[in-house]
TrEMBL record:
Record organism: Novosphingobium piscinae
Keyword Membrane: no
One of the record's GO molecular function terms: DNA binding
Domain called Putative DNA-binding: residue spans: 1-84
Name of this chain's protein: Putative DNA-binding domain-containing protein
Matching InterPro entries: DUF2063, DUF2063_N_sf
UniProt-listed Pfam families: DUF2063 (PF09836)
Length: 241
């Protein structure tokens, strides 16, 4: 009976409904179930709803709820693939899916495990020949072709969003949490190269070595040091070991 009820509730399986009995009462459960899924998306993506408008958002949410029923006992992860669904629904408007990715990343950063940022006072004691960088767990990287980050920030501030801009190539947006606030900024290709090396476990000395392939050693160390200082200032580094 439980399997039939789930099949009716999630998939509107008529055969399962017939085995359960009169479907008039069951329809109430099904409508409530669908409404709860759509309500979860509304709570998770409020700025996206502002951008699309209530009717368009409701249509997208209903489509997603029908195509991607939750597989967990909690709805916390229900919106994880919403942005992917929006790519198909809005193929000519990449900012829509990217707004959803930003909103999801902001929410995930906010609930990520706490990590105290590294204290700059400890830098003098670090063995830079072997030291590796540990980034805060809230850090998320997103690839954008639109100015969805500017749109999202304007919606948060209740300001008039700028005109949509779509570029030929993608740039990287970093999203993470500082204290009790999720923040974001764009990163240039040079920073992303170093960031990917550091996240892959390469030491700070190896980061300098990578730069030394393009610049002289003094300049490479200075550039790596500048980037490290920015990461520390942004509270992106949780440990140096």
């Amino acid at each position: 009976m439980q399997a039939d009820f789930r099949a009716w509730l999630v998939e509107a399986d008529e055969a399962a409904g017939a085995r359960l009995g009169p479907t008039a009462g069951l329809a109430v459960y099904q409508n409530n179930y669908r409404a709860s899924l759509m309500g979860s998306l509304e709570a998770t993506f409020p700025r996206l709803e502002l951008w699309l408008g209530s009717s368009a958002f409701a249509a997208a949410a209903a489509h997603y709820a029908d195509q991607h029923p939750p597989h967990s006992w909690t709805l916390d992860a229900f919106g994880a693939r919403f942005a992917d669904a929006l790519v198909g629904l809005y193929p000519d408007d990449p900012e829509v899916a990217e707004l959803a990715r930003i909103e999801w990343a902001v929410g995930q950063a906010f609930v990520a495990a706490d990590a105290a940022p590294v204290d700059p006072a400890m830098l003098a004691a670090v063995n830079w020949d072997t030291a590796g960088l540990q980034f805060v767990q809230s850090l998320v990287r997103l690839e954008l072709v639109s100015n969805a980050d500017a749109l999202w920030l304007a919606l948060v501030a209740e300001e008039q969003p700028p005109a949509v801009v779509v570029e030929r190539s993608a740039t990287t947006l970093l999203v993470w949490r500082q204290g009790f606030e999720s923040v974001m900024r764009r990163a240039d290709p040079a920073e992303i190269t170093l960031l990917e090396l550091a996240l892959a476990g390469h030491s700070f000395a190896e980061l300098c070595g990578k730069l030394a392939l393009q610049f002289d050693e003094t300049a490479a160390v200075a550039m790596a040091g500048h980037q490290l200082g920015r990461w520390i200032g942004d509270k992106l580094i949780a440990a140096i070991d």
